[in-house]
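[job 4471] stage=fold_predict status=RUNNING
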Amino acid sequence: MPWLDIISLILLILVCIAGTLLTVLQLPGIWLIVVAAGAYGWYYDWQVIGLWTLAVLAAIAAAAEVGELLSGVWLARRGGGSRRAGWWGLIGGIAGALVLTIPVPIVGTVLGAAVGCFAGALLAELTLQKKAADGARVGLYAAVGQTLGTTLKIAAAVMMSGIAVTWAIVAA
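[job 4471] inference complete, writing structure tokens
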């Protein structure tokens, strides 16, 4: 195996690891993995990672993004919440992830998203003049949904990295 092939494989592995870590931080690392696999496939004239594999990786990434985005909304609705609670939970989750990332890296992002999702759904239910206990239940459902969605997206990033690196190693 020529040294340039070894360097490109190591670079792919490092970028896939970085993409997975960025996904944990709620950043678009999952798309970095798609781009890295595409660049690797292009470099080897689509003989190692083909266009079909790249399309599958992009589909997994898109499904994970949608799943993460809508899981809190869906579970808030399943917990008896209003549509408003679902969407406010989503907005709260994004805000919480941004606010708590700085003081507590990595863990703060996931925790902040869950806390923000809870707070957003709770506030939405309270604006509809529902009981605080009902709002708290809906908020809890929304926070659990957000956490499950984030876990799904991280698992997708790990799976995508495994697919890309495995194809690269098998072809080497």
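[job 4471] summary: The chain has one domain: 3-171.
[job 4471] exit 0
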